[in-house]
Amino acid sequence: MKDKVVIVTGGSSGMGKAMAKKFAAEGAFVTITGRNLENLEAAKQEIETFDGQVLCVQMDVRDPELVQQMVDKTKATFGKIDHLVNNAAGNFVAPAEKLSLNAWNSVINIVLNGTWYCTQAVGKEWIENGQKGSIINILATYAWTAGAGVIHSASAKAGVMAMTRTLAVEWGTQYGIRVNAIAPGPIENTGGMDKLVMSEKHYNAMMRSIPLRRLGRPDEIADLAYFLFSDSAAYINGDVITMDGGQWLNNQMFL
Ligand code: HXC
Predict the structure, then answer these.
(1) d(Cα 78, Cα 92) in Å, to the nearest integer?
(2) Fewest CB atoms within 10 Å of the CB: 132, 168, 179, 196?
(3) Is the CB of 10 under 6 A from ligand 1?
(4) CA 244 to ligand 1: nearest atom
(5) CATH label of the domain that carries residue 46
(6) What's the pLDDT band for 10 if we cut at 50, 70, 90?
(7) Cα-to-centroid distance, 105 and ligand 1 (Å)
């Protein structure tokens, strides 16, 4: 990771911050993005091991122009881009029949379209420069099981899974670019836990559904992301690695 340049969207908190921290600790330069500049600056203080190692870009992944500006700024600051983590996400629990059009579009635009805008902008940059970068998309296991109560997120994550596998073949074949995904289960201190665990009853049911009987930790996800970007994973392409204590093998319900 030394001197590599990594972009982490949604990098000011939770898993995004933990991944950025790990990459920086291993010597990478890191761009973190998010909608709140104060949160980004606080994360930068926590992540940086030397001045100038972390670039904060305030932006919303739903805006393709801001995404392009973020990619250009990263290139101008660090000279290149090696890796991208599409971690930014939006989610909330709501019955499918009650979702407003705007509610559906908000999550689809953040998760599916936002991932696409970042992926295409970075991919074009690599292809123009003949560079073999690699991408990690953050999924959820309900992309292939069912996410009752989060149909917008489940549909978007399923789309991102298709994007992961399609580009692993299309860009892998033509350009040697690797695209993989991580499907985390319930991870402590994340927006996902805040948004999806609505009551003590649900928390207890969720814990019973996890064979290992504990939540995952952001640093465990960060270690997996570090491995997937490393040369040790150079032959892993188009895969989805689940890190959920075995939870997806049980049923999960959010209603
Ligand atoms: C019903 C809701 C709602 C809710 C928002 N909406 N929350 N509808 N139930 N609980 C509706 C609003 O009423 C509005 O529709 C529309 O959604 C947009 O809401 P806004 O607040 O105006 O949008 P915005 O400010 O853009 O916020 C986007 C967001 C928000 C997705 C709604 O929650 C957000 O910013 N989230 C980012 C952080 C996050 O969610 N992290 C968790 C990711 S976890 P109307 O019609 O009223 O205008 C994850 C995977 C976890 O993704 C997997 C774990 C196993």
Answers:
(1) 35
(2) 132
(3) no
(4) 55
(5) 3.40.50.720
(6) very high
(7) 10
Q: Does 226 participate in catalysis according to the annotation?
A: no
Centre of ligand 1 to C-alpha 104, Å, is: 9
Whether 97 is in the pocket of ligand 1, judged by its Cβ within 6 Å, is no
- Using CA atoms, how far residue 165 sits from 157, 212, 233, 241, in Å, is 12, 29, 16, 13
Provide mean pLDDT across the span 59-81. 98
- In terms of C-beta density within 10 A (0-12 exposed, 13-18 middle, 19 or more buried), how is residue 79 classed? exposed
Indicate whether residue 195 lines ligand 1 (CB < 6 A): yes
Residue 249 lies in a domain: no
Q: Is this complex's ipTM strictly greater than 0.95?
A: yes
Distance CA 148, CA 174 (A): 38
* Structural domains in the chain (count): 1
- For every residue of 186-231, DSSP letters joined together read SBTTSHHHHHH--SHHHHHHHHHH-TT-S-B-HHHHHHHHHHHHSG
Residue 248 belongs to some domain of the structure = no
What's the gap in Å between 63 CA and the centre of ligand 1? 16
Q: Is 0.95 topped by the overall pTM? A: yes
